[in-house]
């Protein structure tokens, strides 16, 4: 079964946070896709160069939050940066979750710079008496 890509996400909040940092921190916004199958929602986020310990995922109420930091590594003093296009610093993305999910079964993995958060849907059984 393939993924269904949503251009507008009814379960994403109107006030998704752009990124919040301290005044002395750089802020960037990693791109994310939200997909859906009959059984799951998926959030895929590009986080190249980050390791698992650089990313924190939490659920509070109806909000799933992904935050972390990509640090600029100065490995040698033999060069100076002439041009820098790779974003560094703190990031924070917040997604409003739908009500029909299993929060206790959310899974996440970071492979080759792609974070995938798998969010299982809760099946709703509707029974009609007399049938």
Tell me about this structure.
The chain has 131 residues and is an all-beta fold. The protein has a single domain, classed as Immunoglobulin-like (Sandwich), CATH 2.60.40.790. The strands form two sheets. Strands 1-2-3-8-7 form a five-stranded antiparallel β-sheet, with no helix packed on it. Strands 4-5-6 form a three-stranded antiparallel β-sheet, with no helix packed on it. The N terminus is likely disordered.
CATH topology: Immunoglobulin-like
Whole-number count of domains:
1
Mean pLDDT score: 80
Quickly name the level 1 CATH class: Mainly Beta
- The outline comes out as elongated
Structure in a nutshell:
This protein is mainly β and 131 residues long. It has strands spanning 4-5, 32-36, 40-46, 55-60, 63-70, 89-96, 107-111, 114-120.
Question: What's the helix and strand layout?
Answer:
Elements: E1 4-5, E2 32-36, E3 40-46, E4 55-60, E5 63-70, E6 89-96, E7 107-111, E8 114-120
Antiparallel strand pairs: 1-2, 2-3, 3-8, 4-5, 5-6, 7-8
Keyword list:
elongated; mainly beta; 131 residues; Immunoglobulin-like; 8 strands; five-stranded antiparallel β-sheet; three-stranded antiparallel β-sheet
